[in-house]
Hints:
By secondary structure, the chain is α/β, with parallel strands linked by helices. It is built from nine helices and eight strands. It has a four-stranded mixed β-sheet with strand order 1-5-7-8. The chain has a four-stranded mixed β-sheet with strand order 4-3-2-6.
Amino acid sequence: MSKLDDLRLLPKIRDSWSYLYVEHARIDQNAKAIAIQDAKGITAVPCTALALLMLGPGTTITHAAINVLAQTGCLVAWTGEGSVRFYAQGMGETRSSQRTLWQAWQWADEQRQLDVVIRMYRARFEETLDPSLTLQQIRGKEGIRVREAYARASRETGVEWSGRQYNRNDWTQSDPINRALSAANSCLYGVCQSAIVSAGYSPAIGFVHTGKMLSFVYDIADLYKVEMTIPAAFNAVQDETDNLERQVRLHCRDAFKKSRLLARIVDDIDRVLGTRPATGEPTGELYDIDQATPGGLWDPDGIVAGGENYSNVEVNETDDGADSGAGDSEPAG
């Protein structure tokens, strides 16, 4: 058995590198790793320790490389130039739906969803909020917190700030700080999405945000923007380099590493969703030993095994003589 045959032997998302952005290069398989070939030469990357590979314009990747990335639990995302647009993603590490089902259950009940939303907002504040505050009051305090974060970053860096403004249809019209913020948030979204998918949650089932395939990504990323991407963006603009987007990525990389972002995301998600108690590991199996086997089958009396033929199960007849269930057995006569 190779190490890749048992997902338990792979590094956990908390122990991984955050992300690697690649553009104008060719990516091939290199044993149980990948090799990136560009104008500077060939660089081997041990993808078992990589959480997210972002493929920018001009990148080609082989089927074998995608295969080894999928086996090692590295999320692959196809992005726009500078990683500021998201086009598609590959498959994450876990093969269990346990956490997705829990997430959907929390979302489907209005009171549980409200509880999650309030926990998400409260998690953004260093101080303890008054328990009597309503959701609308907490949102107001959050708006003040973010506004003060922008003003503080502007004072500390000397970068002029006049508000969050950008044109989705014309990226070049935005001023440098708004372009930097969008680039920094894009990096954060990619890392959060990698952790979300790797842990077995759904990026689409949001609580604060809704209606988008990445709603939950936006929910979780908002926990870290004031701490990480706002300072990174202002510092990058302060550097006054020709390649602003690249400078933003470098600042984000350093901020993510310094704050040990990947060591925090899954625990923070579990906490706001109530997946685990304050201490200890979540219950249940998070990894399927055999990825090829189907999951269980839902039944009113409990989950039954999948991948089995139930044609020998006795079939009862309804009052009109019709079979009440499918099967190969002949009706009684």
